[in-house]
């Protein structure tokens, strides 16, 4: 039985790797994608998504432009991390395709109504589109069987502030709405993704492969790795969005804590994701928070997807 997926993304470098992983994963079909502000603006994110899907041999997947800004704060983008174009700043041809007319939230709601429980949802950017879709269709959690979100930091530091991870920090109000909705949601936080690291051996493997996907990945990773060299002192990078994509298709790659996760929307803790672990605190909740992952197995699975020709 195939797994059908809608992807909501702010396509920068690691979103691109996640899309290419899903495109190569046997039994997985990307049926639509929506862009959102985050790594770059929403329009550029849509163009990048089209570029990546065309590279993957999926030119007919509909891509919708989503929210251009957060619900309640100014727009901020991450070109310093992902390059001026979001894909390493190396220059890419314009995609042949164009986005569909509907917004990403409208597309998601339409698909959910037309195909109830017919696809899963992967969100690798800020959660503005999902929040807007919930406002358009309050029954969305009953229509989408599984949602996987890359976001948050629940057992360690954030990567934008000491407490806040980027996707949640970019729109805390949207994240609060999405994480409190009653769907089956898996949260893949920095606690896990920061342990899945791509470095020199993986980069060399991409360079040796020589195929179009591997060459593309090698090129876009150069700026990303240089950024991490400037910030952490090593030319390695965590695989945030690819890890979320892999837990969508292979949830057994990690262990989970079932919890209620709240999002702080004010003060110095704005954007923090909080799990109440006090003695006597209520257990359970609707969010499965990913914990320790099988690192080498996940890395091997991603590298196989990026270097093995389709078919």
Write a concise synopsis of the structure shown.
The chain is of the alpha/beta class and 311 residues long. Helices cover 40% and strands 17% of the residues.
In the predicted model, the low-confidence regions spanning at least 5 consecutive residues are none
Instruction: Compute the CA-based radius of gyration.
Output: 18 Å
Major sheet details? 8 strands, mixed
**Assembly category:** single chain
Mean pLDDT: 95
Largest sheet strand order? 3-2-1-4-5-6-12-9
Q: Number of DSSP helices?
A: 13
Helicity range: 40-55%
Shape: globular
First-to-last CA distance: 18 Å
The ordered H/E elements are: EHEHEHHEHHEHHEHEHHEHEEEEH
Q: Based on DSSP secondary structure assignment, what is the total number of beta strands?
A: 12
Report the β-strand fraction as a percent range: 15-25%
Instruction: State the secondary-structure class.
Output: alpha/beta
Describe the structure.
The protein has 311 residues and is of the alpha/beta class. It is 40% helix and 17% strand. The chain is built from 13 helices and 12 strands. It has helices at 13-24, 42-55, 79-82, 104-114, 128-136, 140-143, 166-169, 172-180, 190-193, 200-209, 212-232, 240-249, 295-307, and strands at 3-9, 28-35, 63-64, 120-123, 147-150, 185-188, 197-198, 237-238, 254-259, 261-263, 273-275, 287-293. The strands form 3 sheets. The protein has an 8-stranded mixed beta sheet with strand order 3-2-1-4-5-6-12-9, with helices on both faces. Strand 1, helix 1 (13-24) and strand 2 (28-35) form a beta-alpha-beta unit. The chain is globular, with a radius of gyration of 18 Å. The protein starts with a strand and ends with a helix. The model has no long low-confidence stretch (mean pLDDT 95).
